[in-house]
Amino acid sequence: MNNVFVYCEIEGTTVADVSLELLTKGRKLANQLGCQLEAIIAGSGLDGVEKQVLPYGVDKVHLFDDARLFPYTSLPHASILVHLFKEEKPQICLMGATVIGRDLGPRVSSALTSGLTADCTALEIGSHEDKKAGKTYENLLYQIRPAFGGNIVATIVNPEHRPQMATVREGVMKKEILDPAYKGEVIRHEVSQYVSETDFVVQVIDRHVEKAKHNLKGASIVVAGGYGMGSKEGFDLLFDLAKELHAEVGASRAAVDAGFCDHDRQIGQTGLTVRPKLYIACGISGQIQHIAGMQDAGIIISINSDENAPINTIADYVIHGTVEEVIPKMIKYYKKNSK
To answer: Would you list the DSSP string of 25-89?
Structure first.
C-alpha cells in the first residue's frame, strides 16, 4: 500500500534502459518516503526476468505473463495498471516518456483521475502549502519540467489525487545497480483477473522495429551543432570533426527544425539526453531545452561567436570565434596529430 511503482517496458524479454533508470530513481524516492519500490512487468515468456530488475532495489515485482501481452497494445496494459492500482493504491507511478509511456500514461491517469506530468527532467520529494485552503501537504512528488517553451522551469504537485504520475525520457536519470544480490518478492498474477477478453480485440499481425542509425546515447564524445552552423553543408564539417574524434554528431532543436540535421540526432528536452565524457557545442546558443539534454556531460566545450551565449555559462572551456573558422582548424590539428 502507498508504495512507489515503476512500469517496466520490455522488448522481447529485455527490460528497457529507461525503466532501469526509473527504478534507480524510484528506489531513492522510496527511501525518502520510507516505503517500498515495486515494479510491473507485462509481456510474454517472462521466466527469470525479475533478475534484471531486483538488483536495482525492487522490493516486489508484479509479473503478468501472457503471449498476448507482447508486443504492447494499449487496452490490455492499461487494464492491468488500472486494476492493479485500485488494489495496491500506490502513491507514485513512474514510466518512460517513450511511445509506449505516452500512450499508456494518459490512459491510466485518466481512468484513475490522478493527473500526469510528462517529460519530467527532475523528481524530488517535498512539502506544499496551499495558503488558500490553509493546508500543508507533506511528502509530495515534485514533478519538475521546463514549461512555456522552456522559458521557465515548472514544479508541479498533485496534493489530493493518487497515484502521482510522471513520465521521464531515457537518459535523464542515471542507471545504478543498488545490490546485485538484492532480494525481493515476485508475484505472478493471473492475467484473466485483470484483463477482459475484449481488451485483446486488437492483435499485432506484423511488427517491424528499425534499429537506430547511431549510438548518441552511448557515445563518449559528442559533437553537436546548432542554428549557428548555418546550413546542412555546415553540418558536414561536424561529421568530419566527429570522424577524427571517433565521436557522434548531435544537434539542437533549432538546427533540426531548420533542416540542417536529422531529427533522430536532436539533443534536449524534446530529443535525446546524453552524458558523454566530452561535449563540443558548435554554434549552439544554449536554451534551457537543449541544456536539459546535455548538462551532465563530463567536459563541455563551447565554440561560439557570441560571448554572451547562455551555453557559455555552463561550459568548461569557451572558444570565441565562428564555427567556419574554428572547426576546420580543429580537423586539421587532429588529422595531423592522429598520424
So the answer is: HHHHHHHHHT--EEEEEEES--TTTHHHHGGGT-SEEEEEE-GGGSS--HHHHHHHHHHHHHHH-
